[in-house]
Amino acid sequence: MTAATGERFERTQTATLRTLVQYAGASGDFYEMHYDLPFAQERGHPELSVHGLLKAAWLGQLVDDWFGGRGRVVSFEVSYRGMDFRDQPVTCGGEVVRQESSTVELALWTKNVGGDVTTTGAAVIELDDHTGSDA
Amino acid sequence: MTALSELERALGWQGPERVDVVERRHLADYRRAMGLDPEGTDVPVTICACFLSEPPPMPAAEAYGLGWINGGDRFDYVGPRLALGDELRSSVRFTAVREKNGRSGSLAFLTFETEFIRSDGVPVVRHIGTRIRR
Hints:
The complex is a heterodimer of chains A (135) and B (134).
Chain A: E1 8-13, H1 17-27, H2 37-42, H3 52-67, E2 71-80, E3 90-100, E4 103-111, E5 117-127
Antiparallel strand pairs in A: 1-3, 2-5, 3-4, 4-5
Chain B: H1 3-9, E1 18-21, H2 24-34, E2 68-77, E3 87-90, E4 92-102, E5 105-118, E6 123-133
């Protein structure tokens, strides 16, 4: 597998209340911000917020699907720059920013429906079968 | 004692040891929440998020601000990829704190580190989480 610098991939996800409750149950993160609207509003938020680690899970899966098991993830990191809220589409994206030998670096992000970046991130992938470089 | 100094005094705090298993039903729940086929057996790279105690159960954190915000997460994959049946031991450690003063008031940025070790002693994932109190 080779990767071209600038190659981009995106996917849109939307978390419903059901999604947030499912994620709380699976992850064990029952912080009320994600399912108790009065609790969230008392803390100044307009709506139930999407778990940051659910956005991370979406981005991680986007990365995983992109390289399709033809290698391994070395590192994966995200920084949450803004909140996303239930029932609002979240665009999850990635871009190949560098390839050197079998190592590929990806930039990652999520954007809200207004186009604001709500998460930035990066991943490093070690490809199994490197046959060329676009460097 | 200020809330910040209480956090600084808590540096080095370590949570109780956890033992978690990547088991089929739990994996199905996690995959379903992500929008994936729950019957799939591929283990998402972020599965260790399920083995963190969130929000971190550190008593000193409650002294600062009203609530938690997740600032960021980093996973370093230092061993074989996780598979169904893997048993992991872990314990979260509180390793850093810094305060920022912004337009909406003061924020405390807390760093928590967790190493996940497989039952055969092989380290597999290291996690660094930034959690914010405000």
